[in-house]
Specification:
Length: 224
């Protein structure tokens, strides 16, 4: 059976991505990062999602990026922005964590080599997103070239492919795809603030709510 490493954050996009991988008959190896994020509720969600998917293993990787700071997701002294929906993605927001996806994908690549996986799935999207430079297809293509040069597996003729099935989909299209696959959206978490209820005001909440509205479904999360 084909093996795949799936980056599962606990968020909507990674949940849909991992279900796509499962639907394509991959044996899943889940990877989640505890990197100092203030929205720690997503870690609980990631554990539940990995369990639902019957993952072969689920690694919670500790990587404290809050030692550097530089992002409102890991530094409580930096305010999380509440942009108007039409302005989201026009500039790189305070929630950008420096080089996060380069770091995450590098570790996922190492994990893939260890378990002999053919694929790494990551739920990045460049449509209806917050404006992060490491979610663009140009970055993924560049990282793939690096992966092909930097791993023993690739040198021996077995590359690890970086799969981004959502990268050109809108948030509403992602939600529709998730509904088709039976994704448990009530188990996912998108809010940057990490309270008991989703705030409904941060960029991530606004994109999620708009996506459900356009898709024609009700968001199962409870908002403040």
């Amino acid at each position: 059976m084909k093996k795949a490493v799936c980056l599962i954050s606990g968020g909507l996009d990674s949940c849909v991505t991992s279900h796509i991988a499962k639907n394509n008959d991959y044996k899943l190896y889940a990877l989640t990062f505890r990197y100092g994020q203030r929205h720690k509720k997503e870690l609980k969600c990631a554990k539940e999602i990995a369990k639902i998917l019957n993952s072969e293993d689920h690694v919670i990787f500790d990587l404290n990026l809050s030692q550097f700071g530089g992002s409102s997701l890991i530094d409580k002294d930096i305010k999380i922005e509440e942009n108007k929906l039409e302005n989201i993605g026009k500039k790189i927001p305070s929630t950008y964590v420096p080089a996060r996806n380069i770091i995450f994908l590098s570790i996922a690549l190492a994990y893939a080599e260890i378990v002999d996986a053919d694929v790494v799935f990551i739920g990045v999207t460049s449509t209806d997103y917050s404006g992060y430079p490491d979610c663009r297809s140009e970055f993924i293509e560049s990282f793939q070239k690096t992966a092909n040069l930097a791993t023993k597996r690739a040198i021996e003729g077995k590359t690890v492919d970086i799969k981004t099935p959502l990268i050109n989909l809108s948030k509403s299209e992602i939600i529709k795809k998730g509904m088709e696959l039976g994704v448990p959206f009530e188990k996912t978490w998108s809010c940057y603030k990490g309270g008991k209820k989703a705030c409904g005001k941060c960029d991530s909440c606004k994109l999620r709510l708009k996506g459900f509205e356009v898709a024609g479904y009700e968001d199962p999360l409870i908002y403040e």
